[in-house]
Structure formats: C-alpha cells, structure tokens
Amino acid sequence: MRAVVQRTGSARVEVDNRIVGEIGKGLLVYLGIGNEDTEKDLLYLVEKLVNLRIFPDEGGKMNRSVLDVKGGILVVSQFTLYADARKGRRPSYNQAAEPGKAEKLYQKFLDSLGERNIRVSAGIFQAEMNVVSQNEGPVTILLDSQKTF
C-alpha cells in the first residue's frame, strides 16, 4: 500500500463540480492499493499517518502529528501510484489491486482512520476527481507499507 501525504492548510475534492470531501488543516492522502496488500499493510499505513510528525511545534520544528494538531485527513484513492513506466511510454498498472479488492481495503482504511478520533473526508472510489489543496511547507512524504522506497 502506498501513499503520497501532503501537509495542507486546506484541501477539497470535487466530482462533477460538486465538493464531495473537504478538510481544513490536516493531511491530503493519495492512497494506492497493491495487489499483494492485506489488512496488515492497511494498519501499518494508518498508524504511520496518524503519528507522522510533520506539523510544526512552537519552535518551528516538525514535531507534531495530525492527532496533536487536531487536523483532518482527506483521502483520495489513486491506483496510479502503482504505475510502472520503466518500459515503453504507456505505464503499466499490473501491480495495482483489482477494483473489488481495492475498494474494500480503501473503505477499511477510511473506517480505521475514523476509529482514531480524526475527522476523515474522502473522494469517491473510481470517480474522475479534481483535487484542490494548499500544500503547507511544502511538505510531501511518500509512504509504502512494503518499504520499497
């Protein structure tokens, strides 16, 4: 399971010109689910996200988590995080989970975040979405439950 995490002042996701998810201060998370992923990967990534210290403390050091700042998390599914563009010009998505499996893990991911007393918002699985965010820092972190990078 992979995630691109951005610290935001605000973020929203739109489908058909309608806002379907929105947060203020918090994390924008693009989530990709691989064909080998299990609930173990999901729990690893959830724990990493909620405790990732990328918000500044009083001294300006990145020392606070989304839990500490009482921020929200906006999750957007994105199978393209598993794109492999090493050959040719058209990326391959063979490592991405098939949609049925990915949607189940995506929903469990959202539920697991919600159980941690965090305001969770989300895009719509498999929808064509527009994402608007104010990346603070900018801070962008790549996470992979298999620790391949």
TrEMBL record:
* A GO molecular-function descriptor: D-tyrosyl-tRNA(Tyr) deacylase activity
Query: What keywords does the record list, in alphabetical order?
Result: Cytoplasm, Hydrolase, RNA-binding, tRNA-binding
Primary location: cytoplasm
Give one GO biological process term: D-amino acid catabolic process
Q: Any keyword DNA repair?
A: no
The record's annotation in Pfam families points to: Tyr_Deacylase
Record's catalysed reaction(s):
a D-aminoacyl-tRNA + H2O = a tRNA + a D-alpha-amino acid + H(+); glycyl-tRNA(Ala) + H2O = tRNA(Ala) + glycine + H(+)
Q: Which HAMAP family match?
A: Deacylase_Dtd
Family indicated by similarity: Belongs to the DTD family.
Q: What is this protein called?
A: D-aminoacyl-tRNA deacylase
Q: Which organism is it from?
A: Marispirochaeta aestuarii
> Coding gene?
dtd
